[in-house]
Amino acid sequence: MSLPLEIWLTIFESTFRDDKQTLLSLALVSRAFHGAVLPLLYSDVQITGRERQQRFYRWIQSESPSNPALYIREYTIIITNSDVASGKPYTHNSGALARMQHLRKLTLLGEPDDGKFLATNTILQSEDPSWSLPELRELRWADRGIELELCRFFLRCPAIEHLELPQWAATVSPPTGTLSNLRSISGDGTTAVAFLCGRHIVDIELTSAVGLVIVDDYFTSNPDSAARIRSFSIPPLYFRFEEGHLESILLHLPHLKQLRMGTTQSRKVESQTDLLRGLEKLVLYNKLIGTAPHFKARMRISVRHMRNLSSTPLGRGNTKPCLELWDTEYKMLLRWRRSEDGTRLELVK
Q1: Tell me, what's the pLDDT at 320?
Q2: 275 in Cβ contact with 282 (< 8 Å)
Q3: Which residues of 317-348 are buried (b: 16+ CB within 10 A; e: fewer)?
Q4: Origin, by domain of life (predicted)?
């Protein structure tokens, strides 16, 4: 028990980091153990429901010696259907959020159906002009219609590198000079275009087919911005893209290194080998469902489809895995790499 606190923290982190129950038990052993365990217990916090949020925020704003505010690195707010139905889906004040000065990832999720407004604007509002989250790197906010509040919030979070928003109103422009560190954007096409201007984004994930034409038009008019993109993703279950826009977008991305799409969509571009010339990795998603025989049949079809990519330039020049097949639950099924002679794709075992 005479070991320094830093040594106990190292031991616990290497042995029990993901075992919350054991960490809770260790915290009860002694004050020394409690002090060592606290940063691990509260590095990643997820709060579901209004009542739990209320209790948690009171604790965060208290002067308790066990207050975990400075240990929180990832914080997730989950709004339930029942809370939305009550008309009071959350209880939050920016004072609690502002005390999490080492927060690196902030996420808001909601159970309501897509398209339902959660009205979370007051979570982001504050009358104190001085507070900020200087270390926040990721913001994932599943709400709509609060662009103006988010614009003000961005001024408080200069270090954001990844932004995930379901949609963004084309009539609202993010303030010039904000989010200068932004490198990755996730959302519909309108969201992507809103944040591409004036920022060095290298990774785009389109989460819906909405705005695909807008992205195509933007890349046509802004080739320098398009040339920076290294990773591009389109939703795997959307098959009805306007004819030609997907291929056109990919032609605008000369330095693309990674592409994620559905297997059906990939058939549109595999015959155009120039689209795959610089790719180091192609990730394909396939909806493999049904009975075991049906599943196996679909898998065989997918594997045959993968072999068709052997004749393309995909992954040529190295033997690292360059092709992956995932299901739509985001579980990797198979992956391939180039053979040493470069003539074929072979399964990685």
Answers
A1: 92
A2: no
A3: eeeebbbbbbbeeeeeebbbbbeeeeeebeee
A4: Eukaryota
